[in-house]
Design brief:
With 205 residues, the chain is α/β, with parallel strands linked by helices. It has two domains: 2-126, Response regulator (Rossmann fold, 3-Layer(aba) Sandwich), CATH 3.40.50; 136-201, Arc Repressor Mutant, subunit A (Orthogonal Bundle). The chain has helices spanning 2-11, 25-35, 51-61, 76-85, 93-108, 116-126, 143-153, 158-165, 169-183, 188-201; strands spanning 39-43, 45-46, 49-50, 66-71, 89-92, 113-114. Strand 4, helix 4 (76-85) and strand 5 form a beta-alpha-beta unit.
């Protein structure tokens, strides 16, 4: 529904056109390869995959395509991760319909687009105004660890996470152990509770 709504908004503009749509990573890569768009608007939550993986794929396969992320996560942690991965903009679904055109044109002009609250927090972090010891513990997680944590919050078992990420069970157990250590969680129960709270909050807290 959100994708259809955004497409409607974009199609009303005389200088913009939606040249393709997709709901999962491989379909998106093929559509972008075929349509050769100037900009790809990507959701972090994809069918059977994750937006960060698609961003990294595009940076390798289609480096000239600008990337704008539309996400349910209203926080600077996800914004920083997608910018670091190669996206040029980050906008939440809550603000997308009213700000999407500004975001699109900003990114197409070669600039980076971030909402004001997100931009302020990232600027403060870069300027060193947020001391490392007071930064959210979740900042310590790698992209892969973050993905495992998100899947835990969605109710995936260790075996299901291994299947989804195409990794071995021991590797997932190692990720779980690292996440608990970095977030200072005592056991699997606390890990699950944290992951569920994170999902319910819609982002990092």
């Amino acid at each position: 529904m959100i994708r259809e709504r955004l497409a409607e908004v974009i199609h009303r503009e005389p200088d913009l056109i939606v040249c393709g749509e997709a709901e999962e990573r491989h379909q998106a890569l093929e559509a972008i390869r075929t349509a050769k768009p100037d900009l790809a608007i990507i959701d972090l939550t994809l069918k059977a995959s994750h937006g960060l993986d698609l961003i990294k794929d595009l940076r390798t396969a289609q480096p000239d395509v600008a990337i704008l992320v539309v996400s349910m996560h209203d926080d600077s942690v996800h914004a920083e991760r997608v910018i670091r991965a190669g996206a040029r903009g980050y906008i939440t679904k809550q603000e997308a319909t009213k700000s999407i055109l500004l975001a699109i044109r900003t990114v197409l002009s070669g600039e980076i687009y971030l909402s004001e609250p997100t931009a302020r927090r990232l600027a403060s972090k870069v300027a060193g105004r947020i001391p490392a010891e007071t930064a959210p513990a979740i900042d310590k997680l790698t992209d892969r660890e973050m993905r495992v944590l998100e899947l835990i919050g969605q109710g995936y078992s260790t075996r299901q996470i291994a299947t989804t990420l195409r990794l071995g069970l021991p590797t997932i157990e190692t990720y779980r152990a690292r996440i608990k250590e970095k977030l200072e969680l005592k056991d699997a129960s606390e890990l699950l509770q944290y992951a569920i709270r994170l999902r319910q909050a819609g982002g990092a807290r």
